[in-house]
């Protein structure tokens, strides 16, 4: 069989629309996972019921297959009167599972902070909220950002499962084109490139943000 990408030209609009839809659902899922993971990571460092609840949440969502979570949200919830369309089901599923993994990274970043730094902030009279917002969170993010990048990349890869709930993201679009053209090699070669591009974009974004957050350290080292 001759490799011929021109067979994809009539279907390029559908494939690119799938790439765009994947980018949209992943972008929202990543933002949601970061916000949820930050809250859970902070709660997990505390004692009492907030810490226990956060750790229980993480254990549940890290030990249940992602496809089962997606099916529960899309097919299970309507049985109790909760209806969510495929797009927002995807966003919610990525947020929930991503938040569980991100929370461990954020928690590790918080625990890595020297206790003396927080104590000095308390002695200076800062409130707990100010200490968290101005000191704990910025320092923890500098430590956790690159590991968080791996979590976000995995969310992009996991989004391929969303094609199983009728969401025409790039995997779903590719399956449709492959069935129509009978040229799976070219179609899935496009899919390989599409996911490589999406994950590379996430890595670039995380790397740029990491450099921005640590620019004062680089400047200090040069000085």
Task: List its salient traits.
single chain; 223 residues; mainly alpha; MetI-like fold; 78% helix; amino-acid transport; His/Glu/Gln/Arg/opine family amino acid ABC transporter permease subunit; transmembrane; membrane; transport
Structure commentary:
There is one protein chain. The chain is about 80% helix and about 0% strand. With about 220 residues, it is mostly helical. The protein has a single domain (about 5-220), classed as Orthogonal Bundle (MetI-like fold), CATH 1.10.3720.10. Mean pLDDT is about 90; it is low at about 220-223.
Quickly count the helices: 9
- Proportion of helical residues: over 70%
Biggest beta sheet summary: none
SSE succession = HHHHHHHHH
Short recap of the structure:
This protein has 223 residues and is mostly helical. The protein has helices at 12-44, 49-62, 66-76, 86-111, 115-123, 128-158, 170-181, 184-213, 215-222. It has a single domain (5-222), classed as Orthogonal Bundle (MetI-like fold), CATH 1.10.3720.
């Amino acid at each position: 069989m001759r490799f011929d990408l021109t067979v994809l030209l009539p279907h390029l609009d559908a494939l690119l629309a799938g790439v765009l839809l994947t980018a949209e659902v992943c972008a929202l899922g990543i933002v949601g996972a970061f916000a949820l993971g930050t809250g859970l990571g902070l709660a997990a460092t505390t004692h009492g019921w907030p810490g226990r609840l956060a750790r229980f949440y993480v254990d549940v969502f890290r030990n249940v297959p992602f496809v089962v979570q997606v099916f529960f949200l899309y097919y299970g919830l309507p049985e109790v009167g909760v209806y969510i369309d495929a797009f927002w089901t995807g966003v919610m599923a990525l947020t929930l599972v991503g938040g569980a993994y991100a929370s461990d990274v954020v928690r590790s970043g918080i625990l890595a902070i020297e206790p003396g730094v927080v104590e000095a902030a308390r002695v200076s009279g800062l409130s707990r909220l100010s200490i968290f917002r101005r000191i704990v969170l910025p320092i923890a993010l500098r430590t956790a950002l690159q590991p968080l990048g791996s979590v976000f990349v995995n969310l992009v890869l996991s989004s391929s499962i969303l094609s199983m709930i009728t969401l025409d993201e790039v995997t779903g679009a590719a399956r449709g084109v492959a069935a129509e053209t009978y040229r799976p090699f070219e179609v899935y070669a496009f899919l390989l490139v599409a996911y490589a591009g999406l994950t590379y974009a996430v890595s670039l974004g995380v790397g740029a943000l990491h450099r921005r957050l640590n620019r004062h350290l680089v400047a200090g080292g040069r000085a």
